[in-house]
Design goal:
The longest helix has 29 residues. The protein is built from 1 helix and no strands. The protein is rod-shaped. The protein is mainly alpha-helical. Keywords: Membrane, Transmembrane, Transmembrane helix.
Length: 41
């Protein structure tokens, strides 16, 4: 079996939080973005 590396750092939790925040902001800005596109179009 593989040995555990004491120096291994798992960054997947931070990545999930970052992606979650980006999606949250993008979904909140979606109506404004659609409105701007309609005004310019």
């Amino acid at each position: 079996m593989a040995e555990q590396d004491p120096n291994f750092k798992d960054d997947s939790g931070l990545l999930a939080i970052t992606i979650g925040l980006v999606v949250l902001v993008a979904m909140s800005a979606l109506p404004a973005t659609i409105g701007i596109i309609q005004l310019l179009g």
